[in-house]
Amino acid sequence: MFRHFVMLVALALPAAAHQYQLGSLLIDHPWSRATAPGMPMGVAYLSITNNGKAPDVLIAASTPAAARVEMHQTTIADGMARMRPLSEVVIAPGSTVKIEPGGIHLMLVDLKAPLAAGKQVPLDLTFRRAGRISVQLSVETRDAPP
Asked: For the chain, what is the largest distance between any 2 Cα atoms, rounded to a whole number of angstroms?
């Protein structure tokens, strides 16, 4: 019985390890796609849920894997995709912001090395109210579904 319990706990750990709590914020499934050698940019995705009663704001992100991290939003207007920089991302109380392909995303600019599938990449997120948290991006294959 104990052996089965230990196996169940071990199987549950990877899923649990991919969520991070910072105060009233829940950061879920931070990930990136693998990049080809020589590709100067990567991208990071995740979702942020605010379980608190006050808004919070993502004001910065950084990683040792790149020179800088920029926040962008892609919009479609007149059939054309346009990307614009964001200075912050507001997370309203009781809501979830999805940082995902085709919307808000984090650009990893001037990568120091390719992002390899199966690896983990550290990412620091800074929020106006909750402060700073370090998460791990799981690098997934380029054909992995978003």
From this structure: 61
Q: What is the pTM of this model?
A: 0.85
Sequence-distant (≥ 6) Cβ neighbours of residue 63 within 8 angstroms? 44, 69, 108, 121, 122, 123, 124, 137
Question: Which domain, by its residues, includes 32?
Answer: 20-140
- Which residues lie closer than 8 Å to 17 by C-beta, 6 or more apart? none
Q: What is the CATH number of the domain that holds 45?
A: 2.60.40.1890
Identify the burial level of 11 via C-beta atoms within 10 angstroms of its C-beta, where 0-12 means exposed, 13-18 middle and 19 or more buried. exposed
From first to last of its 146 residues, the chain has per-residue pLDDT tens of: 444 433 333 333 344 458 999 999 999 999 999 999 999 999 999 999 999 999 999 999 999 999 999 999 998 888 888 889 999 999 999 999 999 999 999 999 999 999 999 999 999 999 999 999 999 999 998 665 55
Distance CA 134, CA 63 (A): 9
Structurally, the chain folds into a number of domains equal to: 1
